[in-house]
## 1
Amino acid sequence: MNEINIEAIRQDTPGCEKLLHFNNAGAALQPLPVRQAVLDHLELENSVGGYRAEALANERLERFYTALSTLLNCRPDELAYVENATRAWDMAFYSIGFEAGDRILTARSEYASNFLAYLQVQKRHGVEIDVIPDDASGQLDVGAMEDLIHERTRLISITHVPTQGGLVNPAQAVGRVARKHGIPFLLDACQSVGQMPVDVQKIGCDMLAGTGRKFLRGPRATGFLYVRASLLDELDPPFIDLHAATWSAVDRYEWRPDARRFENWESNVAGKVGLAVAVEYALNLGLEAIEHRVVRLAEQLRQQLSALPGITVHDLGENRCGIVSLRSETETATDIQARLAARGINTSVSTAPWARLDMEQRGLEELLRASVHYYNTGDEIRRFCAALSSPD
Ligand SMILES: Cc1ncc(COP(=O)(O)O)c(C=O)c1O
């Protein structure tokens, strides 16, 4: 496993000088090479025009597919560039031809936008939603999940790492069950890609959605979708355009042969160049090394927080990642966030409507979310805890 050179990494991350950034689950700080790649492309667009710039950047744009295929362990033609994780997930989800009586199997930690989509197809087509209970640790219970599988289960769809805490759901075990029963498996990996190895072959998912701006440290409004090649022709994308398909005769069209059929013709080209660089940056550091450091920092943070009077840590699961969720007996999460922001400390707040099944079950209205990345340090954790426990 590579050793991460923290000093060099922080030099590549000028924001570290001014900020204490514990909102990496919101949007991480971009490293300089990512910012430079975006700026260079914008500059090129200014000097030669957008279409010419795109043609000239062809090799850099193709690197998005090759680098991401290495990261996720899939083929480049199984990847689509989409503007964010939600739309990437939607393109996969709404491609499934749900019929009345079909069932969707999901988990308690599900992200709001995904659950809203289940409710929408329930209203439109009369599907049933089955929710997997948690095990004693708070992660989804794989045994209970298998018991819930029904002859009409059309999709297993879960969130790998939820928006509201450090839980890492056992995606690989879910994948084994999905394969055993031949049920398509859609994984929301928005909060996991970039902070831990995510290998679609090992996990056994058929579709996976992710975003650029969070733990991958890419530009905002960039995201991606993986779809297993063998599933492509079973899906009917909800939107079509002249990039996704060819109008081959007046009354006919042909889909592109690859997963780019889930893309738009028009997209954020500078963002794609930047995301390719962000993926390469993560690959150069090594995802095992990144995970090792992130997990260690987050555990340090949990330990120090647990020692503070009136603070409770709320992360669930057997394996926890870089997202740390907490509450104070004396201050609301919103107040803490504002107070820390005034001191140059970035955190975020998770509220019940973002993950209602989980938050309601635990009787939580809101949580403060402090999410670390590998460029954070032990000293920042100590400063964070000191600021948290000393109101102005
Ligand atoms: C678990 C999860 N899924 C999906 C998303 C949505 O990602 P995006 O904003 O890129 O659409 C988020 C964003 O916070 C998330 O936490």
## 2
Amino acid sequence: MTVSQTVYDAVGGKPFFVELVDDFYDRVQADDVLMAVYPDDLSEPRRTTAGFLAQYWGGPPDYSEERGHPRLRMRHAPFVIRQRERDHWLNHMLAAVSATVKTHQVPHEVEAAMNGYFEHASTAMINTAELSNG
Ligand code: HEM
């Protein structure tokens, strides 16, 4: 018999995602490159992103009940996301993961899976080519 556990369970449920996302958006708030893209009031993104991630990693489908199918690329289409914005975004998220796992019992492979997901998914959100320097 195989006993499988979701990442959501492995990190102890919703509070992990709320803390992760709060830490992340605190970093976003202090980043001029990202605040040129985000609204001044980050309270909605804090709430919806925590709900989305909890759902994505196996928690209850609260995000979709409220917002429908995630379609993240489509939802990000109104914002100019280049390699630069993606890199700032990813650096803050990886720093937030690293800070948040310290106060939770998170298995190393779970942390690695999360980082891999953020790296991949943030790249997929790029929707605008960088101007060349040449
Ligand atoms: C792993 C990659 C990413 C995930 C999982 C993610 C997730 C989300 C979610 C769940 C929302 C809320 C959508 C909703 O309203 O229902 C959101 C909004 C947003 N995201 Fe992302 N995102 C990612 C990458 C990025 C990147 C690279 C940027 C670059 C700047 C970005 C910028 C934004 C902006 C500007 C909003 C809208 C905030 C607002 O107007 O309320 N996201 N994101």
